[in-house]
Amino acid sequence: MPNPFENALSQLKRATDVRSFDQELIDRLTYPLREIRSHVALRRDDGSLQMVEVYRVQHNNWRGPFKGGIRWHQDTDINEVKALAFWMTLKCAVANIPMGGGKGGATINPKELSENEKERLARGWMQVMVDVVGPQKDVPAPDVNTTPQIMAWMADEFGKATGDKSGAVITGKPLEQGGSEGRGVATALGGFYVFEALKDRLNLPVSCCIAIQGFGNAGEHAAEFFSQAGHKIVAVSDSKGAIYSDAGLDIVAVAKHKKATGSVIGYVSAETVDSVLEVSCDVLIPAALENVITDENVNRIKARVILELANGPITPSADDALFAKQIVVIPDILANSGGVTVSSYEWEQNLKGEHWREEQVFDKLKRSIQREALAIFERSINLETDLRRAAFVVALERLQQAQNSRMNGIG
Ligand code: NAD
């Protein structure tokens, strides 16, 4: 499996092929400012002790406090967390929010944990990290397998240790713990707004045929938004497999089936297929994990447009192959930036002691993400390049400006 951090650095290098940047900027962004690897001593319900490896990578904070989710997954390792932290730096710059890039994790399969064990791991993670996170230092959030409830336990643990009960240390909290209206759906909704802004420019039909990999926070809500807007969702998948219906899936019924059984598999009005990625469709939405479109399967991709809700789903060489086939990729650092954008709204609300209405949050998100999407599209035309390189160029220019104004020429 390709190393995701090497993929991220390869994307950085490729952006400099279309616009030159100061080598010092590139060198500084090649290395995270800080990498923390530690262990939580997790007491299991049966009385045994499990040492769980945990991480926080603080990649860059020139534009504001480090920001990024916490992933709990059996395959999570330091290279994955470094790559995700790097992408957060670029993403926050693309979204033009006053935050930097960070990411956290734990190498564990949370499906094997009881609720009590999850709470002990959440509190243990925060105990290990309490000195390095904080509203003005580093603000974590949910990612794969971490939920608003897990964020609430972590925020509570931080409050106990520091006395700071503002909740601004962490975003993606439940509403009653200081969470923002709209945060739960923000990643998917942001992706949908980006798609709407670019749809005509990409010559997509009024009603598109859509396939989605992953049916969690990002994927399930994306299925809902696209289907409510009249698009046809022909295929969805989760970690257990993929389902397909030529006539289009009833997303409400699929979600109900998943809630009852734990998987989309077994939903009656659909057939099972081997790979959701290879289905014929207008728009393919990877919304699970990284490195799913590689040299091995890229030639079997039939979508016209790929909207990356997952982080890093396409390897750099597969990206080139898609570009050659004129398949447009709307890159993760733009497509899924709705999540961190609304996280930054949550942080701002907590710092100011405010609570914004859902309509206000969605309106602010829509204006902001569509403005950035259109600017990146124009940039890709001017630079005669793909949307990923254009998004990197926009982010690197903003990071360069932040670095210049901080260092005042003497750093
Ligand atoms: P989640 O844990 O809620 O859902 C992940 C989904 O992926 C689940 O349905 C799971 O079954 C599925 N999955 C796992 N392995 C799979 C496989 N091999 N094939 C098909 N499906 C598989 O996670 P999420 O929050 O929805 O995150 C999904 C992706 O979106 C990740 O790349 C994450 O970094 C990215 N993302 C999430 C947010 C957010 O706010 N949640 C923000 C930005 C980016």
Described by strand count, sense and barrel closure, the largest sheet is:
7 strands, mixed
Rg calc: 20 Å
Per DSSP E runs of 2 or more residues, the count of β-strands stands at 12
Number of helices: 13
- Order of adjacent strands in the largest pleated sheet: 9-8-7-6-10-11-12
Proportion of strand residues: 15-25%
Report how far the terminal alpha carbons are from each other. Answer: 38 Å
Ligands (ions, cofactors included): nicotinamide-adenine-dinucleotide
Please identify which CATH superfamily of the largest domain we are dealing with.
Answer: NAD(P)-binding Rossmann-like Domain
Oligomer: single chain
What is the total number of structural domains? 2
CATH topology of the largest domain: Rossmann fold
What would a concise description of this structure say?
This protein has 411 residues and is α/β, with parallel strands linked by helices.
